[in-house]
Amino acid sequence: MSGATIGDSLELLRQQTALARFGELALKSDNLDEILTEACRLVGDALGTDLAKVVELQADGETLLVRAGIGWKSGVVGVATITAAEDSSEGHALRTGEPMISPDIATETRFKYAPFLIENGVRAVANVPIIGGEGKPPFGILQIDSRAPRLFTENDAAFLRSYANLLAATVDRLRAMSDVRDGEARLRLALESGELGSWDLDLPSGNATRNTRYDQIFGYADPPPTWSYEAFLGHVLPEDREQVASAFRHAVGTGADWQFECRIRRAGDSEIRWIEARGKPDGQQDGGPTHLVGIVADITERKKSEEALRRSNDVLEASVAERTRALTEANAKLKAEAEERERVEGVLRQSQKMEAVGQLTGGLAHDFNNMLTGISGSLEMIRSRAGQG
Beta-carbon neighbour count of residue 250 at 10 Å? Predict the structure, then answer.
């Protein structure tokens, strides 16, 4: 076997070993910074380079932060940045999605390089994009640096592309796990803030898991070792039990959501409390759901407020009815008084009219009597003179 062939075989072995070790690390660790740093060390060993780093693309889509690396002076990892401009090899790699290699940056005319590369004695650079998940921007770039000019081969480029893709899958997995953890944390915070109990009923086994608040709602200071639908139903007051059971059967049989309000008797103090539960079937097996998951809340205070409001409304309605009756009676009385006043005023007007007629008649009679007196005197005078001839 020739020296060149042996050298190629050893190089291939180093690269395959680096891929295998990185794959093992990616499966064991959930610490992104630890994985990125080890990725730089492994790729540096595989290619025999002095320096390696991972630069992470920031939210502005242009700035690349040195997230992890090996062999760099203090003040580079976690601090130094590169702008992915059009005249930079990093910008070119991000735009094309292809590896970008500069065998000797001292003679490179295509691109400009960040000052910290020169300060660290970098002469050769190989950039390989670390792609993002579906619909996501690239995570950044895996950069292999050398303090001596170096012509990276096609085999080197192929290895780096495979390595960067494995790194991208790891980053995507960790990001997804982080999103899940963040979602779970937000859910726990929401449940705690709302004082909500959560439950997950495994229908085939009949066993249920709950959070601490769920057990507290049902009056347990120490969580029962096991819990089931039957245990839950045993707390429901007999007069509410059939309503709850009917809703449960409907949810399991049809896949519809389970929502109800009922009264329960708590363990320990036997206090009767109101609860509201909301459940949703999940999973499928033999045509039916395998789980029923949901939340439960103690709504006793709300029910008390509603009852107080109902009583207040009843009192208000009674007060309004009484006031309406009183106003109706007052209106009827006022109407009767008005009618009586109108009648009296009519009688008074009629009386005044008769009085006026009487006064007019009296005046006419007086005037007529005066006229008759004159006429009578004249007749008497005529009669007297007629007697005298």
Answer: 13
DSSP 205: T
Sheet with 124-130: list strands edge to edge: 81-83, 63-70, 51-57, 140-146, 124-130, 100-102
What pLDDT does residue 263 have?
Answer: 92
- Predicted pLDDT at 65: 93
Provide φ and ψ at 167, rounded to 5°: -65, -40
Crossing angle for the helix pair 3-28 and 154-193, to the nearest 10 degrees? 0
Cα separation, 27 vs 177, in Å, equals 13
* Burial bucket for residue 348 (CB in 10 Å: 0-12, 13-18, 19+): exposed
Residues 6+ apart with CB under 8 A from 180: none
At 244, list the tokens.
């709850």
- In three-state secondary structure terms, 269 is coil
Q: What is the pLDDT of residue 1?
A: 45
Strand order in the sheet with 208-210: 208-210, 197-202, 291-298, 272-282, 258-265
Contact 127, 103 (CB under 8 A): no
Asked if residue 299 lies in contact with residue 197, where contact means CB atoms within 8 angstroms, the answer is no
Higher-confidence residue of 47 and 11: namely: 47
**What's the pLDDT score for residue 71?**
92
DSSP tally for the chain: helices H, then strands E: 9, 11
Percent of the chain with pLDDT over 70: 87
Q: Are 145 and 125 in contact (CB under 8 A)?
A: yes
DSSP string, 3-58: HHHHHHHHHHHHHHHHHHHHHHHHHH---HHHHHHHHHHHHHHHHT-SEEEEEEE-
Alpha helix stretches (DSSP H) within 48-153: 89-96, 115-119
What CA–CA distance (Å, rounded) separates 173 from 29?
A: 11
Q: Are 293 and 266 in contact (CB under 8 A)?
A: no
CA atoms of 200 and 222, how far apart (whole Å): 19
